[in-house]
Amino acid sequence: MAEGQYCPQCGQPRPHRLSVRHVLHELLHVFTHADKSIFAYTGHVLLRPGQVVADYLAGRRKRYFNPFQFLLLVVGAATLLTTVGHYYEATGHGLQQRLQST
Q1: Which of 23, 47, 97, 101 has its CA 20 to 30 A from that of 29?
Q2: C-alpha distances in angstroms, 29 versus 15, 34, 64, 70?
Q3: Neighbours of 41 (CB within 10 A)
């Protein structure tokens, strides 16, 4: 089998081996891609949610960040922030204090 960047039969780029470096690069690329930035998508969703949904349902999806990736990233970020900030422990402790005082 011939070695190289592209498949000699179909011309497609060869797949990358998964490595920590490649995953981190892809994660960085998701956040900083100029055409479909997650930050621009967040602004569109907050300011014009109806337009985003209408465009998505009409098949105009290339201009927007993938909504399913967005959902996964938001859930992941929320989970990370609540875990690091001990949000649920503080909330549970406050609730226990209120229940014991009544």
Answers
A1: 47
A2: 17, 9, 15, 14
A3: 18
